[in-house]
Amino acid sequence: MLKxxxxxxxxxxxxxxxxxxxxxxxLAKELGISLTNQQLDSLRGISRMDSLELILKYGHQEDKYxxxxxxxxxxxxxxxxxxxxxxxxxxxxxxxxxxxxxxAKERGLSLAIASASKNAPIILTKLGIMDEFDAIVDPAxxxxxxxxxxxxxxxxxxxDLGADEVISFxxxxxxxxxxxxxxxxxxxxxxxxxxxxADYLVPTTKELNLAKIEAAxxx
Length: 219
Ligand code: B16
Ligand code: MG
Prior knowledge:
Blueprint: E1 4-7, H1 17-30, H2 37-41, H3 48-58, H4 67-85, H5 97-106, E2 110-113, H6 120-127, E3 135-136, H7 150-158, E4 166-170, H8 173-181, E5 185-189, E6 200-202, H9 210-218
Parallel strand pairs: 1-2, 1-4, 2-3, 4-5, 5-6
Protein name: Beta-phosphoglucomutase
GO molecular function, one term: beta-phosphoglucomutase activity
EC number: 5.4.2.6
């Protein structure tokens, strides 16, 4: 029986991806690395340091910098990202999300956040929905990033629920893989080819409808 919903943040509740990807693209350019759209897209859902390592790999610069230099680059990117987050308001919640959260509350479901972002609490506060969630995974306490199942397993444990009692929502390929590896029901939001591992797919958050998703979960 359905008892909880687990949400990725970036690309699901709000489109902070444009700020993440913009800030990474600027940093890559400063390092003399030109990223293709596909390479940029592959950073969705990937943790901060893993994203930087991937960019350096794409630019064939994986052995060029010390750990201290890499941390400085990641901190620079984060400063630019946080400048954008500071400007966020409840208007930045993606269409359909408030209805989904309200329907879930009425239905008595528990809600959790499984975001790789260390900025999740600031973003949720800016969006005005921090108090809607019963649990938020602290990504600093995890050993492995998405696509490893750890983050979705942790969210489920924080809600004190079983894998067969939750539905999880993701916009990234690595995220869908993480949900499926955790044995949970995955709702993908985005491109059907990219998210083909999802159990239920919608092109955008506008099409999210709890009754329809729950019907698919129960079949
Ligand atoms: P931070 P999600 C992820 O959020 C983003 O999709 C990804 O682009 C970002 O690098 C990662 O969070 C870490 O974010 O630098 O703020 O800790 O999709 O898992 O909600
Ligand atoms: Mg995401």
